[in-house]
Amino acid sequence: MSAGGSTRAILAALGANAGIAVAKFVGFLVTGSSSMLAESVHSVADTSNQGLLLLGQKTSQRKANKDHPFGYGRDRYFYSFVVALLLFTLGSVFALYEGIHKVAEPEKLSSPLVAVVILVVAVALESYSFYTAIKESRAIKGDVSWWGFIRQSRTPELPVVLLEDAGALLGLVLALLGVGLTVITGDPVFDGIGTLSIGILLGVIAIILIIEMKSLLIGEGATPDELAKIEDELATGKVERIIHLRTQYLGPEELLVAAKIALRPGLPMEDVARAIDDAEARVRKAVPSARLIYLEPDLYRTTVRTP
Fold first, then answer.
1. Where do transmembrane segments lie in this chain (predicted)?
2. Could you tell me if 191 and 114 are in contact, meaning their C-beta atoms sit under 8 angstroms apart?
């Protein structure tokens, strides 16, 4: 997949979160709501995160060199991992701290209606961003579930934006509940509870992203569907069998394929070279992201142990 779809989702989220952050800060200054403050910091963190995702896309396009012969594709994984860390530290930890403080020392809200109006507007803007992320993700999701897409996707930005936007929408609902219950009951402790809930929500999302981005950063192989296609395309023609096969994503759009293949005995050197070229062409056609393919011809021996 090209980076175009993920870029559109990032830009939509960036614009929405920047506007929401300003509105929420104004709401906090007017009302003094800790839920509004937590949501303001959350939106600032999200805006910064989208900037980092765009930076990762930019730096990953640098050409390969002597020090980095496989290029810089994993920059997108690195910056996505940084985004997950920021969401945890700047979003979750701050909200938890502020929530504990407000529960221990509740403060009366002023002009809570202002907070409600701003939060409702924020829900509309965040919904647009979430819709854009869903639309762009559907193009590559296939038949897998949304959870499966987040777990299996080798394009890091879309899962990050999807989870961020989902968390933002749920966080806004929690903030509305906190402010609303405070107005209805007259007890500002509910505002602090709403803030705590936002912190827990962001923490759960951040941990999920940290686990997934770490896995991509240290190197994940082809998806089960891609692996099956590669095996089918390799083990045809003059290739008798695959002795062993290894794959690894060097970036979201660049898959490394390395395999030892058994060819028919007695093939002339020209036929061996042609068989390898044909196998590479078949694999690239079936899995376009398989850009780097290294095939080692060999004779199959039953005593050979695969590493």
1. 77-97, 109-131, 160-186, 192-211
2. no
What pLDDT score does 258 carry? Answer: 95
Q: What is the pLDDT of residue 33?
A: 75
- Please check whether residues 170 and 263 belong to one and the same domain: no
In-domain check, residue 305: no
Contact 38/98 with Cβ under 8 angstroms?
yes
DSSP readout, 124-146?
HHHHHHHHHHHHHHHHHHTTS-H
According to DSSP, the β-strands at 239-251 and 254-263 are: antiparallel
Query: pLDDT of 38-70, one tens digit each?
Result: 777 777 877 888 888 889 889 988 998 998 998
- The phi and psi torsions of 220 (rounded to 5 degrees) equal -115, 150
| Angstrom distance (rounded) from CA 27 to CA 114 | 6
Judged against a pLDDT cut of 80, whether residue 215 lies above it is answered with yes
Could you tell me if 193 and 248 lie in one domain? Answer: no
Residues 14 and 157 in one domain: yes
In the sheet where 254-263 sits, what is the strand order? 239-251, 254-263, 292-298
Note whether residue 303 is domain-resident.
no
User: Please, what sign has the CA dihedral across residues 163, 168, 173, 174?
Assistant: positive
Q: How many domains does the chain have?
A: 2
Contact 12, 56 (CB under 8 A): no
* The predicted structure's pLDDT at residue 302: 55
Whether residues 58 and 86 fall in one domain: yes
Domain boundary among the residues 218, 248, 273 is at 218
**Chosen domain end from 194, 218, 242:** 218
Q: The whole model's pTM is what?
A: 0.79
> Which of 225, 180, 177, 219 has its CA nearest to residue 198?
177
Q: What is the pLDDT of residues 122-165, one digit of tens each?
A: 888 888 888 888 888 887 777 888 888 888 888 888 888 888 88
Domain that holds residue 89: 4-218
